[in-house]
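Quick one, tokens below:
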């Protein structure tokens, strides 16, 4: 088991390049199952979640070649595909449920384990299944598996009760090869949805309106080979922005789309952090003359404040001047990091879906545990700003979604080391 040891208190400085988006590449990899022709995906980050998706696609019979140095994955699902995924592989990451729509559309049937809950909530898939059923799939659930069957899917009008990212992706992927038109209303509008639609359209799909709350998909007979570059990761970018803020540093980010970061930029500015677009990239300078100032946050679907940045902002607001209220509306149990931040001296009270933070000026190093991916990132940020040493256990959660976080932070002057517990 590996852990991070962080000696806090050093302002970060320099330039960091942001990698490709985890949440964009995973559905795009699943979407490659829709064609027997070769799909080249560029800008792929080196993450354990991507490796898990690679294993799943290979287990279904697709050929996956990952050039990690170049950040390029080539997928060819040209042989006969096995329409069944194993529990061992699928339980490694929830995004694996995104193979359901493509497999169903391509092979006419799919058997996949129900994804369980996880640390941040129960995370049901009812909206995914409702959408696939509306496209004509027969769906059964038994012994922990979902079975879906359809000789050919038929376009339909579907209204999502909640703009779920995963359900929007699964339904759009299934609709691409359906007969006729699908209209998906109240769809998610996240940039990762737009990236998926761009990938599919470049392979011959006819998807319009991605990035708005109504997506229209005109079914096509087949998709063809394509070559696509993944968008930059807005959550990795946001995490480095908070790292600059929490250490009072001066960091420039390259390979970012500022438009995707609007809520994060707005909230950092509100907290008295300077953010500016320069010729070199997006520059973030921590609050001058002391801590940031308190700011209230409410997580919402895009373009609202991202739930995936909530924990990292708490690391900043825990030391900000004044009282902040952070409200989590997307997931029901996403305050696992609070107990760990309190071990570091934070003053946080949880009342149902809100957390009230009284800024304490400075946190203290302590021994803490990453409970999930973004909670883990938040602890790294808290440790960077804290006095003394922090030991963060269970960092495999962090490696799921951050490529070489320790090395990138070291290049900005952070004192962070990865050590093996057994060593
Ligand atoms: C994706 C992201 C995740 C991010 C989340 C919200 C990926 C791989 N993951 O997750 O990082 O935090 O969007 O921005 O892209 N829900 C239902 N029924 C469903 C589906 C969802 O009730 O069928 C609920 C969920 O339990 C949750 C909310 O809807 O409370 C949002 O979930 P969703 O947008 O689907 O998130 P994911 O696609 O799982």
């Amino acid at each position: 088991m590996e852990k991070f040891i962080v000696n806090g208190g050093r302002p970060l400085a320099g330039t960091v390049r942001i990698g490709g988006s985890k949440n964009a590449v995973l559905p795009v990899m699943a979407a490659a199952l829709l064609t027997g022709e070769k799909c080249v995906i560029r800008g792929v980050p080196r993450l354990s979640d991507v490796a898990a998706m690679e294993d799943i696609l290979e287990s279904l019979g697709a050929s996956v070649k990952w050039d990690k140095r170049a950040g390029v994955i080539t997928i060819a699902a040209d042989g006969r595909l096995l329409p069944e995924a194993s529990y061992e592989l699928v339980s490694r990451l929830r995004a694996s449920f995104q193979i359901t729509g493509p497999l169903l559309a391509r092979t006419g049937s799919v058997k996949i384990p129900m994804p369980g809950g996880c640390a941040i909530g129960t995370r049901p898939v009812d909206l995914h299944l409702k959408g696939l059923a509306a496209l004509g799939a027969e769906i059964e659930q038994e012994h922990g598996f979902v079975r879906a069957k359809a000789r050919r899917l038929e376009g339909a009008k579907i209204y999502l009760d909640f703009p779920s990212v995963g359900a929007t992706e699964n339904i759009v992927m299934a609709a691409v090869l359906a007969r006729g038109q699908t209209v998906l209303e109240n769809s998610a509008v996240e940039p990762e949805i737009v990236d998926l639609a761009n990938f599919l359209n470049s392979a011959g799909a006819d998807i319009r309106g991605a990035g708005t709350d109504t997506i229209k998909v005109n079914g096509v007979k087949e998709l063809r080979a394509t070559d696509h570059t993944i968008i930059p990761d807005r959550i990795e970018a946001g995490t480095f922005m908070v790292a600059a803020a929490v250490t009072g540093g001066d960091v420039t980010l390259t390979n970012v789309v500022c438009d995707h970061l609007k809520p994060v930029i707005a909230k950092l500015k509100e907290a008295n952090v300077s953010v500016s677009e320069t010729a070199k990239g997006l520059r973030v300078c921590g609050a001058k003359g002391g801590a940031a100032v308190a700011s209230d946050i409410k997580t919402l679907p895009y373009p609202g404040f991202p739930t995936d940045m909530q924990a990292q902002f708490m690391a900043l607001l825990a030391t900000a001047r004044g009282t902040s209220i952070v409200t989590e509306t997307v997931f029901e149990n996403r305050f696992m990091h609070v107990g760990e931040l309190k071990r570091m001296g934070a003053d946080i009270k949880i009342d149902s879906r809100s957390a009230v933070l009284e800024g304490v000026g400075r946190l203290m190093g302590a021994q803490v545990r990453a409970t999930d991916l973004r909670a883990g990132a938040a602890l790294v940020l808290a440790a960077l700003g804290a006095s003394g040493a922090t030991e963060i256990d269970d960092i495999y959660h962090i490696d799921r979604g951050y490529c070489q976080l320790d090395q990138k932070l070291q290049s900005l002057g952070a004192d962070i080391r990865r050590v093996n517990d057994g060593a």
